[in-house]
Amino acid sequence: MSEKNTATRLTRETVLRGALALLNDIGIDALSTRRLAQHLGVQSPTLYWHFKNKAELLKAMAETIMLDHSEEVPADMPWQDWVVTNAGNFRRALLAYRDGARLHAGTRPQEPQFAVIEAKVALLCRAGLTPERAVNLLFAVGRFVVGWVLEEQQMQPDDPLNDADRRRYPLLCQGWETLQEKDADALFEAGVRLLIDGAVAGLAIDNNHGRQS
Q: What is the per-residue pLDDT across 147-185, written as a single tens digit (0 to 9) for each?
């Protein structure tokens, strides 16, 4: 069978799903077009019918993860709770794949995602945020999630605090040990809600300025 016929039978979707499966097996550092071709049982040039290079493939893989986990924007949920839920869905999407955060880091939304993002911005604008504040909040939460998952996927066991640490840094140790009593999901939500608190405060300031003008 010719290379062109093989490429036709090997669809873009097949390549992407194979790449994501291979990512889970070997991680992003070992992932290459050569390894992917071997995984799919084809020659490396065959992949170039669908992706010009590894960078384009990685970008498409990140887009696929996001599109797979996109959800409808609810009409009846308080916007603060929706932001927490949306952030949690994003976190789970990245955690679903080995090195998911590293794969996503540095990417930007592409046109297939714009309609979903527009609906999210519209929800926040209906709550009173300006488009600028709404996009900024989504941007901040998104970067928070990527950084959080990056830490989760690279995390090493913590050394326990000792009595000398507690005497020398009592406030730090008290705060740290209190946080360690929470599970990972609760810690994550608490961090997201700190960002939401900032958005709520900004909204209150805008409303006060509006009443005074």
A: 999 999 988 777 778 888 889 999 998 998 888 888 999
Q: In the structure encoding, which two tokens stand for residue 196, read together?
A: 């939401």
Report yes or no: 192 and 84 within 8 Å, Cβ to Cβ. yes
Cα distance between residue 203 and residue 177, in whole Å: 33
Rounded to whole angstroms, the Cα distance separating 72 from 82 reads 11
Three-state SS for 129? coil
Cα(74)–Cα(13) distance, integer angstroms: 29
- Model pLDDT for residues 116-140, shown as the tens digit of each residue: 899 999 999 999 999 999 999 999 9
Q: Which residues contact 77 (CB under 8 A, 6 or more apart)?
A: 85
Residue count of the chain:
213
For 212, the enclosing helix (H) or strand (E) is helix 184-212
By the 8 A CB rule, do 128 and 203 touch?
Answer: yes
